[in-house]
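Friendly challenge for the regulars: who can give me the C-alpha cells for this chain first? No prize, just bragging rights.
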Amino acid sequence: MIITRTPFRLSLFGGGTDYPAWYLKNGGLVIATSMAYYCYISCRFLTPFFDYKTRVVYSEIEAVKEHKDIRHPAARACLEFLEMEKGIEIHHDGDLPARTGIGSSSSFTVGLLAALHGLRHEMLTKERLAEEAIHIEQRVLNENVGIQDQILAAYGGLRVIEMGPGPDYCVTPLILAPDYLRELQDHILLGFTGITRVASTIASKYIKVMEKKDDRFDEMHSITREALGTLRQNRDLERIGRLLHRSWMLKRSLAGDVTRPEIDALYEAGRRAGAYGGKLLGAGGGGFMMFLAPPECHERIWAALPQIKTWVPFRMDNQGSQIVFYHDGYSYGQDGKPLREIAQGVTHEESERTL
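First reply, four minutes later:
Bragging rights claimed.
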C-alpha cells in the first residue's frame, strides 16, 4: 500500500494568465503557494478474491470490472494513461472540501499519479509529475484549466511561475526573509462561503475573453509583476493588499459567474472591517474567500461576516506531493498465485532513464 499527501494551493496573483488560451500567445505570470491542507490518496493492488477488478472510494464508491467503466474522470484517466493492468483499490480523503477554489482536482490527479507510479517502484521528479497531471487534465480530460494548480500540487512552496509566450514555463521559489514570510502568513484569512462550484464551467466563460486579447489580462499581468517586486523587497503588506484588491476587481469583471451579489457584500464587509484587500480563490463563483488583513483586525472581520461559518487557519506547505506511507505487500500474478514484490529504491535519475 502507498499513501500520498498532496497540498492544495492558494493563488495570490496572476490566476487566469496560466491558461494556455492566454499564455501561449501573450505570456503569463503567477504568484501562488501550496497550503498545509492536503489531499490524501491511498492505493494498493487488489488480491484476486473479489468479483470486481478495481474499487475507487471518494464521495461515492465504485467497484468495476474494467478501468474504462470508472465514472470518476481523473481516476479513470490516470489508470488508463499509465496502462495499469492489475486490479487496484483507491481511497481519497481531503482536509478541505472540493470545488472551492483550492485546486483540489489537480491535487487529486497529482497525488494519484504519484501513488500509481509508486506502486510500480517509480519515483518521478516534481517537474515530470506536474507535466503528467497537466497532460491528463488538459489533453485527456479536455478540462478548462490552467497549469498553476498541478505545479503547486507537485512542487509545493511559495512559487513564481513564468509562462510563454509559447509552451515553455519556469518555476522558481519566491524566497522571502523569515520574519516577512511569517508576517505574510499571519495576515492571510481564509473563510468558506459555503458555496461550491465547477471551476471548469466558470473558466470557460472568461477563456472567450482571453481569446480576444482583452486588455484586462495585460493589466493583471502588470499587477502581478508589481506585486512580485513588492514582495521581493519585503515592502509594506498594505501595498500587497491594495494590489490584491485591484486584481480582484479586474477578475470579477471578466464574466458574470465569477462573483454574485452576496459574495460582493461579504467582500465589502471584510474591507470595511479592516482588510487591505482580498479575492475569491480559484475561478470564482464561490468556495473560499481570502482576505489580507492585519492580525489585530481578524476578530473584527469575523464578527462582520457572520455568514461565513468556517474560518481556516492558514499556513504554507513547503514540500509538495509526498509519499508518506509505503508497505510492499504481496501481489498476485495472472494465474492467481502470490508473487512477492520486492521494493526497489528508484532515484530521480533512474526514473528519468527508465520512464
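The chain has one domain: 2-312. Confidence is low (pLDDT under 50) at residues 340-355. Your move, everyone else.
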